[in-house]
Amino acid sequence: MDLRVAAYAVIIDDDDRLLLAHWNEGRRAAWTMPGGGLEPGEDPEHAVRREVREETGYKVAIGQLLGIHSRVIPAGRRLTPGATEPLHTLRIVYRARVTGGRLRNEIDGSTDRAEWFPLREVPELQRVRLVDIALEMAGAI
Predict the structure, then answer these.
(1) Most exposed among 6, 60, 85, 94, judged by the fewest C-beta atoms under 10 Å?
(2) Taking phi first (over 0 means left), then psi (-120 to 50 degrees means alpha), and beta for anything else, what does residue 16 get?
(3) What residues contact 71, with CB distance under 8 A and at least 6 apart?
(4) How far is the CA of 114 from the CAs of 18, 48, 74, 103, in angstroms?
(5) pLDDT for 74-123, tens place per residue?
(6) In the chain, domain spans
């Protein structure tokens, strides 16, 4: 079984808007939480700061650890062509706040844009399940 550990940020501003990144590597493009996989030996808090910066242009301060979500994806449902083993994903979710930078889109990455959405509009978006999981962890839904 393969293992992927990733860290994500729930970033909600003072106007109750959620920062999301548009993921373009799946079977269908969808909005997701900013964040991504840890590099070998990388601290999860460092990873989420790095990933948020890459995907959105923002520098963030990491707050409370909201939770860890575990999921096993059967080999036949994996996105990696030719994968023969299931994938165990561990997704570490933190609360974070913007401390600098400016909104911009990622170039040549797994996401192609970032955007703020009012929390009340999130249920209407084409999104991955991680968005709902993270918002539930944050007590935002």
Answers:
(1) 85
(2) left
(3) 88, 89, 91
(4) 10, 15, 29, 7
(5) 988 887 788 889 999 999 999 999 999 999 988 888 889 999 999 999 99
(6) 2-137
Report the CATH architecture of 2-137.
Alpha-Beta Complex (3.90)
Q: What Rg, from alpha-carbon coordinates, does the chain have?
A: 14
CB of 11 within 8 A of CB of 97? yes
| Dist. CA 124–CA 49, nearest whole Å | 27
Asked if 127 and 137 count as a contact pair (C-beta separation under 8 A), the reply is: no
- Token output for 21: 């990144």
86: CB partners within 8 A, 6+ apart: 1, 2, 72, 73, 74, 75, 78
